[in-house]
Structure formats: structure tokens, C-alpha cells
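To: structure desk
From: M.T.
Subject: fold request, one chain
Message: Could you run this one when you get a chance? Sequence is below, nothing fancy, just the single chain.
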Amino acid sequence: MTGKPAACGLTLSSMVSNPDPRPGRWVLPLVVLGMILFTWVWVNRLEPPTVEGTAAISGTAPSTTATSAAAEDTTADGDETETPEDTTPTTLLPPEIEVYLTNLGEDKATLAALVEELNTVNDDWENRDQTGVNFSDTEAAMVAAAERAVVFSEAVELHRPPEDVAGLTDAHQRVYESAAAVAEAAANALAGLRAPDTGELRRAAVVEFRAAAASFEQQVDQISEIVLQGFGAA
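Reply: Done. C-alpha cells follow.
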């Protein structure tokens, strides 16, 4: 009889200290509640759908008013900076004519340098009281210029103009005659420097040299016009 009350007391004490015999049954509801709260927060943080996406889903075409206005503004602004279309006719010349014209262009550049060289030598000698040049240096410079003039003339002579362009052969003959006159005038300037006069022969030869050089340039320009006219580009 005395053992039973003790057992009952133990049972009651255990029930009082641990009212819930299964404490883990609240864990799952709490986890589910946390997932629901997390989902709600995440959904509310998403950006609202754009109008374009809504229109695509509903099948309604988006408005193009802003786009059209932008296009009109671009056209209006572009009128100031738009590059005009190049309407210059392009002419394809045969390779042999291209080479011929290129050679003449190089001859013009060579002659321009030669003119500058001989003018400098002549002017320095003409003003030798100020420049201080002597006869030996001037003579050597004149000899070099005269030799380069001969090389220039021979190079022009070697050019062969294409025969299928009317008038080009005669025009090239005039070009060569001008080149030969350049070489002759340069030689005369050297002879005038060596002459016992007071410089009249040298000065006259330099004038002839400049005139021959100017004639050469004009004749080369005339050849360019002949070629363009021959191919219908003039």
C-alpha cells in the first residue's frame, strides 16, 4: 500500500514539469510559417512588369509615338551634319595611262626642287656681297644643278605616252621639248657664270630656265586634260 502513493506522486510530478510530451511537433509549423513570410517578402521586392512586356502578353502593340518623334528629331538635327552625297564622276583609267600620269607628276616635283635649287644658287651669287659666297662654291653648285637638269630631261624622254588617246603623242612631244629647254637653260646659266661679262648671260639664262620650267608644268597639265577628255571625264 505504501508504494503506490509514491508512484502516483512521481507521475504527477512528471506531468507538471513536462506538460507537452512531444515538443518537436511545433517545429514544422514554424518552418512553414517562415517560408511563407520569406516568399511574401521576396515577391513584394520584385520589380513590376514593364509596359512592353504587358503589351506583348496581351497582344496590344506598344505605342510608337515617342519613337516616331525621336526619328523626326534625328532627321531634323541631321540636316545640319549630313554629309552630302558625292556626285563626282569617277573615271577608271587604263593602267598604262595611270603610270604615265604618275611619272609626269613625279617629274613636276623633281623640276620644282631643281628650280628652287638653281634660284638659290643664282640669288646667293647675285648678292654675294651680303651672302659671302665665293666663285668656286657657286660654280660647283651650278654644275650640280645643270647635271640634274640633264637627268630630268632624259627621264622625261623615256616616258612613252599611250597611243590610244588622241592628241597625247603631240602633247608629250611638247612636254619633252620643255624639259630639254630646262636642261639647256641650266647649262647656259653655268656658262654665263663662267663668262667674262658682268652677269648678263647668266641672268638671261636663268630667266629662260624659269620660263622653260613654267612651260613644262603647263604642258603636263594640258596632258591631264587631254586624258580626261579622252575618257569622257572632262
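Reply (cont.): Residues 95-230 form a domain with the A middle domain of Talin 1 fold (CATH 1.20.1420). Let me know if you need anything else for the meeting.
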